Amino acid sequence: MRYAEGSRRLRAYRKRIAALRKKMRDVQHRIEPEPVDDYTFSTARGPKRLSELFGAKRDLFVIHNMGSSCPYCTLWADGYNGLYEHLRSRAAFVVSSPDPPPVQARFARSRGWRFPMVSHRGTTFAQDMGYRSRSGGWLPGISAFRREPNRIVRLSEAAWAPGDDFCSLWHVLDLLPEGPAGWQPRLRYRSPGRSR
Fold first, then answer.
1. CB 94 within 8 A of CB 115
2. Using CA atoms, how far apart are residues 70 and 103, in angstroms rounded to an integer?
3. Is the separation of the CB atoms in 90 and 59 below 8 Å?
4. Using one digit for the tens of pLDDT, what is the confidence trace for 104-145?
5. What rounded mean pLDDT belongs to the chain?
6. 24 vs 34, 60, 147, 185, CA distance in Å?
7. How big is the CA angle at 51 (ends 87 and 74), to the nearest 5 degrees?
8. Distance CA 97, CA 28 (A)
9. Are 56 and 89 in contact (CB under 8 A)?
10. How would you label 53-81 residue by residue, b for 16+ Cβ within 10 Å and e otherwise?
11. Around Cβ 37, how many Cβ atoms within 10 Å?
């Protein structure tokens, strides 16, 4: 296929994806919010309730992170680190993982993360939100919450997987003919120019 023809087809597909996103936003707008408990999390500064994570904001994004041993969750969190200032200008933002606060703090420092973290260890938060597998493992994703006068509700959520819309890296790699071609994230990479 010639370059011009391929580009034309891809533009048409992207227009269809944009139209589908509009349909998704329309459905999202009509969803009845789900009331949730005011869970208590562990933090480096002591216990914090879900209601406290909103700060002065009405809305809150909570990232469901599997912890410091997961290179995929680290990849997503690295991306959110760059978006953090933009995100928090609109809503509160926090990353929740099963790691205890000291482990979270060390790992966040090693990655240069600026966003707040909370530990859901010892709570049913991840499971209640649908981010625990049947085998007991953790699952990655994101939930959006809203604080109302007498309750907290979950507005929406989305699970994460390679190729999803929540990590731009996959879409950049898709510009190559082979796509990711088996590429997988790592917690650490060797410096350029060194052999593997």
1. yes
2. 13
3. yes
4. 999 999 999 999 999 999 999 999 999 999 999 999 999 999
5. 94
6. 18, 20, 23, 29
7. 45
8. 26
9. no
10. bbeebeebbbbbbbbbebebbbbbbeebb
11. 13
* C-alpha to C-alpha distance for 189 and 196, rounded to whole angstroms: 9
For tokens 């929406």, name the residue.
156
Q: Is the pTM of this model over 0.85?
A: yes
Q: Is 90 left (phi over 0), alpha (psi -120 to 50) or beta?
A: alpha
Of 48, 73, 33, the residue nearest 125 (C-alpha):
48
Pick from 10, 12, 18: which is nearest to 174 by CA? 10
- Residue 92 main-chain phi, psi, to 5 deg: -70, 155
Range 33-159 classified under CATH 3.40.30.10: yes
> How far apart (Å, rounded) are the C-alpha atoms in residues 92 and 144?
10
Using N-to-C axis directions, what is the helix angle for 71-88 and 101-111, rounded to 10°? 80
Tokens of residue 77, six digits: 């969190």
Confidence of residue 193 (pLDDT cuts 50, 70, 90): low
Residue type for position 166 = F
Residue 153 CA, chain-centre distance (Å), reads 18
